[in-house]
Amino acid sequence: MASQLWLLRHGDAEPHGVRPDEDRALTERGRRQAMAAGAALRALEVRIDEVLTSPRVRAHETASAACETFGGGLVPELHEPLSAGFDGVMARELLELREPGAHVMLVGHEPDLSGVAHALTGARLDLKKGGLLRIDMAGGEGLLRALARPAELALIAGMAPSEL
Fold first, then answer.
1. What is the strand order of the sheet 103-108 is part of?
2. What is the pTM of this model?
């Protein structure tokens, strides 16, 4: 049974230099992007078993807003390795510790998330702020199943992209 790995990049955040990088918060636009991701997942009737997030404020706020909008009682869990340097090997190891067929969402940063996608699937992509992708994993091999920008997630969620 294939596991699903969902990768959500944090939404739009305060500019660099406003405060220390790890403390930069989401902007209102970033919060709307995160809510659109959660609403899109709910609209698609996706199953998510667990959400792990970088402890950086903008990622944790993204995970919290997405989970709140998704519903189902999901609560993001801080996962320090997602803060920086998270890679494909770490993603594989993380999934190997779960039950077969687990559906896990990771909320983090670039370039790490695109690097994970490349390591697991061979795909080269640019995950936009607030963007989401799905990788199906079976036998250590990954297959990129979905990639959505925030505007596409808004449409799936029933929002106008201009609302972002």
1. 77-78, 50-53, 103-108, 3-9, 132-138, 141-148
2. 0.97
